[in-house]
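> call design_seq(struct)
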């Protein structure tokens, strides 16, 4: 930890920084955000704040009020406007009218600040500074009082509970509040200890400490506690910069990590910027990007992650570490969004840092918790394969051995987006193995939970037992036997082997061994979030068509099997989710081969044959000028012998 000799006055910027911030806001990339921030629907905001807000619903209503407050306070700081002052003061009044900023309790009485408490505290302290003399002395006193008596202690209770599980009396959900689904939070001190909500709780500590610095007896303690919590969190992350919960959860987490770090550095004299390799995190965000021509795409969406990072923490990394990769990502279309926190990107973005992608970023890599990624490049028309092996993780799905494949500007093999967090919602199904490009045994996937404690990790794990790369190919084999055994299935082998011949040939071998004869099915999910994905089946083949590309698949196996076009059993008003099903009838041994070729829309696919002789599969042919000669020989134990 480095301690600066004199704290800087502004929480995020000084008055001298305003010309630079205004110049950033004038950039084309910020135009949509800045236009909408300056010209909101004032009448709708006022109607919500005066007539519609529910002071017993902190989930949606408090979040909206806090965001109105922060948005209008920042607009006024950058471009003074009386209308924004008026709506910000009204929003502040309503935010402070909430008896608590969170819906969790310790011992049934004390607020546990793990969700809205931190994010609201950040908005309030920023607004207090940015509005300044536009607030009355009574307004400032009310803010001080709330932070000192409620928000700061709530954050301390939360972080203390994460640090000392054995000293927690018991966490529960506040029955006086609404807007959330009730789950069992009794184990949350341990669960949240190691996931991103530690940082949201810590941001409440940092906000209270910075705002009350030198003016409250607990402020220094809160600052030290926030410092230790920020450092502990990043110390547990993979050293290569990967974020197990996915890039949009990285964005949410490090938005508040970065703002907390700035509060501590600029107001409390505590510098934690050396706590982690932040440029490596920017390279991770680049690695898991999935740019295609479809608006629904954004990242390799393992688990609940469905979008790439927003601009704010990337701008912070670019500024403080002079990192060109981070700045290049900031300027990527879609990264700067129309959200109140986008103000932080305008505050942090430094146009003097050259925006350029890391020149040595590997095209093939295995990242934590066990995801093999192989790609041909970084443009919207390059090819990407993601193969999910590895350990369980917060915000995960039942997706072991699942595949995502994008080529020629389209996602072609899908992991559906935006699964529900709540077990009672039909779209909870999107979390399960049945909704992934994966394997079902007797109609069942591998072990998963019922959402009793939220979206925490399951117990299911898979393991990469082979991973090799060549000049223009990648091979990976993942064993998920233990994950399926946990679901009570009589398995002794569930092995998927993937061969990616770059840029657009994907060969998949699925082997299942059972002690009881049962049917096995592989599912191939069609990207259709925008309604433009189609599926056709002909004999042992299927075709997935998207506006800019098609995928054709030939399937083969040693016995009888059927290829059918199916849909997930979900209400159609919430979207249609088609998939190709390759079903092998009941047996103790199963081996299914699927050979996929991708091509730009309008192009024909080259002929590729699949033949078996003496328990060895020969895949041969030519596709888009590339000769295909692959031999796969399954063996009794371990990965099959594959010759490329």
């Amino acid at each position: 930890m480095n301690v600066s000799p004199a704290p800087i006055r502004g929480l995020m910027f000084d008055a001298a920084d305003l010309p630079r911030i205004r110049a950033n806001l004038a950039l084309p990339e910020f135009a949509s955000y800045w236009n909408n921030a300056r010209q909101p629907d004032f009448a709708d905001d006022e109607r919500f704040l005066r007539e519609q807000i529910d002071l017993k619903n902190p989930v949606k209503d408090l979040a909206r009020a806090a965001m109105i407050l922060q948005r209008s306070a920042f607009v006024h700081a950058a471009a003074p406007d009386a209308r924004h002052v008026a709506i910000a003061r009204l929003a502040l009044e309503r935010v402070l009218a909430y008896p608590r900023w969170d819906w969790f309790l310790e011992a049934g009485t004390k607020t546990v600040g793990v969700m809205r408490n931190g994010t609201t505290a950040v908005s309030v302290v920023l607004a207090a500074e940015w509005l300044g003399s536009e607030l009355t002395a009574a307004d400032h006193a009310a803010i001080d009082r709330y932070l000192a008596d409620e928000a700061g202690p709530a954050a301390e209770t939360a972080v203390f509970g994460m640090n000392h599980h054995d000293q927690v009396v018991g966490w529960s959900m506040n029955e006086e509040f609404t807007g959330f689904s009730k789950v069992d939070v009794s184990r949350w001190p341990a669960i949240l200890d190691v996931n991103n909500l530690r940082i949201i709780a810590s941001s409440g500590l940092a906000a209270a400490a910075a705002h009350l610095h030198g003016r409250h007896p607990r402020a220094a303690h809160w600052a030290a506690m926030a410092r230790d919590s920020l450092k502990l969190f990043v110390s547990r992350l993979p050293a290569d910069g990967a974020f197990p919960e996915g890039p949009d959860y990285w964005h949410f987490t490090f938005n508040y990590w970065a703002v907390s770090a700035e509060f501590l550095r600029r107001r409390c004299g505590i510098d934690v910027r050396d706590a982690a390799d932040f440029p490596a995190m920017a390279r991770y965000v680049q690695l898991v990007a999935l740019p295609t021509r479809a608006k629904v795409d954004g990242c390799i969406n393992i688990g609940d992650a469905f979008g790439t990072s927003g601009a704010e923490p990337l701008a912070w990394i670019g500024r403080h570490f002079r990192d060109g990769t981070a700045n290049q990502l900031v300027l990527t279309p879609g990264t700067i969004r129309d959200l109140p926190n986008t103000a932080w990107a305008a505050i942090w973005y430094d146009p003097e840092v050259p925006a350029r992608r890391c020149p040595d970023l590997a095209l093939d890599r295995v990242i934590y918790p066990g995801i093999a990624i192989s790609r041909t490049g970084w443009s919207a028309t390059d090819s990407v394969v993601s193969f999910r092996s590895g350990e369980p993780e917060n915000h995960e799905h039942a997706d072991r051995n699942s595949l995502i494949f994008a080529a020629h500007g389209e996602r072609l093999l899908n992991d559906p987006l935006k699964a529900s967090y709540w077990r009672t919602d039909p779209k909870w199904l999107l979390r399960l193995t049945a909704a992934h490009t994966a394997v079902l045994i007797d109609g069942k996937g591998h072990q998963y939970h019922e959402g009793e404690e939220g979206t925490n990790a399951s117990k299911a794990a898979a393991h990469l037992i082979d991973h090799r790369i060549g000049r223009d190919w990648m091979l990976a084999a993942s064993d998920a036997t233990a994950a399926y055994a946990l679901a009570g299935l009589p398995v002794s082998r569930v092995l998927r082997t993937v061969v990616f011949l770059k840029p657009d040939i994907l060969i998949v071998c699925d082997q299942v061994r059972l002690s009881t004869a049962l049917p096995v099915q592989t599912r191939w999910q069609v990207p259709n979030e925008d309604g433009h994905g189609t599926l056709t089946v002909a004999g042992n083949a299927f075709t997935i068509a998207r506006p800019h590309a098609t995928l054709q698949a030939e399937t083969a196996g040693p016995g009888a099997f059927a290829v059918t076009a199916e849909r997930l059993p979900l209400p159609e008003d919430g979207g249609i989710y088609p998939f190709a099903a390759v079903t092998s009838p009941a047996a103790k041994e199963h081996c299914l081969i699927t050979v996929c070729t991708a091509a730009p829309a309008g192009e024909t696919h080259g002929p590729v044959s699949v033949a078996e002789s003496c328990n060895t599969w020969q895949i041969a042919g030519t596709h888009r000028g590339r000769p295909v000669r692959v031999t796969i020989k399954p063996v009794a134990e371990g990965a099959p012998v594959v010759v490329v």
